[in-house]
Design goal:
globular; Aspartate Aminotransferase, domain 2; 2 domains; Aspartate Aminotransferase, domain 1; 13% strand; homodimer; 478 residues; alpha/beta
Chain lengths: 478, 478
């Protein structure tokens, strides 16, 4: 289907116009967050069939309008559902350029500009976490970054495994908090150790790993003849937004010489903030860090950095030295492919570099501080209203809470928890159906609770208050 | 950095203009493929530093121009370096929309449109390979898809491994051709079996796995007390573009009930072509297939489908049932997250869906046929010229060759091979420095050879002939 230059030009111009309108529409709340249309009905409305013959490029503008119409508006100030939110025009521009340039991150030769941008970004992020000599690479998400860290940890403890696999006497075991992300557990399954190789360590009431429980768990594992090779501390847990105490955890891991990985997928961005970076105190003692700029920094998915304190860790673990691709030139340190678990790798650096140009370090710092202020204000509002209960003392930008409507306030104990939990999921379903707000829930301490994620700088107090009003109203009959 | 709507509009409009100019510039050969600037020099020219304070959005247009100026033009008709090429305006439009929508592929709730598009694409691709009841999911590249297939194969053979890891008596072993992609080897290392768990099977002179050698290798492994759990056939090998004989391989694997995976990262797209799909004859007998639309179909990186013949394979292998995300509703079959190794997952479906609208099935079929015709014509041209030697009989769209300049034609045997190989890498370096062509090389049968990848529909015979002219000219003194 060769297209004429003029048709291409006109279509891209029209797309840019629509993009501008789409981004502007969020500001005035003129549009809902989502239109909850069930799959069968939406399939009918959209007409998704793949045609036998091609259609003119210009016609696809209509399809674009449909996609924008029926997709969830994750940039809407009332979207609280995921650990990302808002729109960043500079990062969107970066993504548009990425699509044009369309290259792959294995060699400097094929991706000179994107490689240098990634190197610069990794260097800066490493410096921010205190890895002065570090190395790193972008990965397609936090799960993949956590897997890469686990592989590096294994390679250090069981260097024979890369070539000859695990031996019966390896008995690897690693530790994570009971509120850590499931991708850390799954890494054990992928790596052939099984889910049983993961020991979940108890948390304090705020959802932070207890260093004393970790120490005891390590001692038990050693007594059982197992080999602890990694501890994963979480900096910004998925539900509660809690930060494990890295310094205290390092006190436990260092005497045993255990690899310490910090899953800061959510929380890494607090390093921008002079006020809040103390949440990650001790992170320079870690061996590796996962940090996802696509969360708190607001660049489009996905953008996840795998950072390593010691240079050489990733290359030693992952290099396969494929001769058809890597030609071992003097600039080979700029061939990032051998650091990665991917071969062809999408460029995720350009969008982050553009975003960094627009915000600057200071802009990101203000952004992070602002999210914490929003979280504190939201917490205060919950306390000011009857019936709202914090489920956890908020640790960062997430606030977990329940609402006890008047008709349930006489209940106590288990019965109360169960009724309030059931009310939470029913009301959350109604909210989703209405589409004016999107907020997620998770089971915490035995029952569902709302998880408010405050990660859009354009969200105002009137947005969060309107959510609480609506929860109150819907809970009256739920 | 709050930006005004008008500034956003103006910047996106300008970006769309530049995009149109960028795409048009390739047609006339007015621009080089690449400007080979070494890392230190390019860093200086670009000024990549990350600022303390943000810059106005409109200023970033200058940065965009720099990125376009110094990036390798992978869409240029004289870019032959990677297994992708050309530009697809419809797919670029899809990527632009993806950046705007910015969502994640774990739940239907968060990504209704993109999920339905992915489901439709996977259904169609499954039907094309003959998996009538199949399931599947997109992954961030062929390496990841191959890993997912290997994990599913392991889960079938060693169902205890997910929970409790490998047992000493598992002794897993898998088989791939000696010309298979390195990601298949690495999967064994990731999975804790080590590189030793992979047995490389000999190929015929065209680079296709020999079924008799496979049968013998399986028998040897069984005699050694090992458990063969997977055979990986390659459909479109990375260097030679060879297709392993799937039907004959299935004859070997089926009596042993071994999982058969087909790595059709490059070759899957031949299923569009009535003329060439016989290269994958027998693929419905496979258990899983990797197929990368970002290669022969020309959509931007990355777009890779992991296809499974039996529904349930991916979910059983990968599901972690994270309660905070997956709420077990009736539409849960549209929550693709539990099929994947990722949690947050970038949307790769929209670009492919848009590309499919523009090309149609017939357009893709023509495209594939055209690449094969280009390959045949290029091969004929090599034979018509003195000194050019095919290294392999071309099997698909790749053509591997060497050029023996007049001054080396008197040499014979090892000395000749060595001199010609050295000449190949020297000339290739010169070509890369000049930047008018980009073509890769790889070691084949003991010495470097050029690997011509013909995957841009806008490449003409004058482009390929000009490359050969230039190789002849540069080899005269090399």
């Amino acid at each position: 289907m060769p297209q004429l230059g003029t048709e291409i030009d006109a279509t891209l111009q029209r797309a840019a116009q629509l993009a501008g309108e789409y981004l502007a529409a969020h500001h005035g709340h003129e549009v809902p967050v989502a239109r909850a249309v069930p799959p069968a009905e939406l399939t009918k409305r959209l007409g998704l069939a793949l045609p036998q013959q091609g259609r003119p490029l210009s016609e696809l503008i209509t399809d674009m309008q449909q996609v924008l119409e029926y997709s969830v508006r994750t940039g809407h100030p009332r979207f609280f559902n995921q650990l990302f939110g808002g729109f960043d025009p500079a990062a969107i521009l970066g993504e548009w350029i990425t699509a044009l340039v369309n290259t792959s991150m294995y060699t400097y030769e094929a991706a000179p500009v994107a490689t240098l941008m990634e190197v610069e970004l990794i260097r800066r992020m490493n410096r921010m976490v205190g890895f002065e000599r570090g190395e790193g690479v972008f990965a397609p998400g936090g799960s993949n970054s956590n897997l890469m860290a686990a592989l590096a940890a294994r390679h250090r403890a069981f260097p024979h495994a890369k070539q000859s696999g695990h031996r019966a006497d390896d008995k690897p075991v690693f530790f994570l908090s009971e509120e850590a992300h499931y991708s850390v557990l799954r890494a054990g399954a992928i790596m052939g150790m099984g889910l049983d190789a993961a020991v979940e360590v108890a948390c304090d009431p705020q959802g932070r790993m207890r260093p004393d429980a970790l120490a005891a768990a390590i001692d038990r594992a050693l007594a059982d003849g197992r080999t602890p090779f990694m501890v994963v501390a979480t900096a910004g847990s998925t539900v509660a937004g809690a930060f494990d105490p890295i310094d205290a955890i390092a006190e436990v891991t260092e005497p045993h010489d255990i690899w310490l990985h910090v899953d800061a997928s959510l929380g890494g961005s607090v390093m921008f903030s002079e006020r809040h970076r103390q949440l990650m105190r001790g992170v320079p003692r870690a061996h590796s860090v996962t940090w996802n700029p696509h969360k708190m920094m607001g660049v489009p998915l996905s953008c996840s950095a795998t950072l390593m304190r010691e240079p050489g860790s990733l290359r030693a673990t992952n290099a396969m030295d494929a001769d058809y691709l890597f030609h071992g030139k003097s600039d080979a340190c700029y061939d990032l492919g051998d650091l990665s678990l991917q071969c062809g790798r999408r460029v995720d650096a350009i969008k982050l570099w553009f975003s960094w140009q627009a915000h600057g370090h200071d802009g990101f710092a203000q952004r992070v501080d602002h999210f914490f202020e929003m979280s504190a204000a939201f917490r205060a509002e919950l306390e000011a209203r009857d019936g709202f209960e914090l489920v956890r003392e908020p640790q960062s930008t997430n606030v977990c809470f329940r609402y006890v409507p008047p008709q349930l306030r006489a209940l106590a104990g288990e019965a109360r928890l169960e009724a309030v939990g059931a009310c939470t999921t029913r009301v959350r379903d109604l909210l989703t159906q209405q589409g004016n707000f999107l907020i997620n829930y998770a089971t915490l301490d035995g029952a569902p609770a709302y998880r408010m994620a405050l990660l859009n700088a354009e969200t105002s107090e009137s947005d969060t208050h309107a959510l609480l009003d609506e929860i109150e109203a819907l809970s009256a009959d739920a």
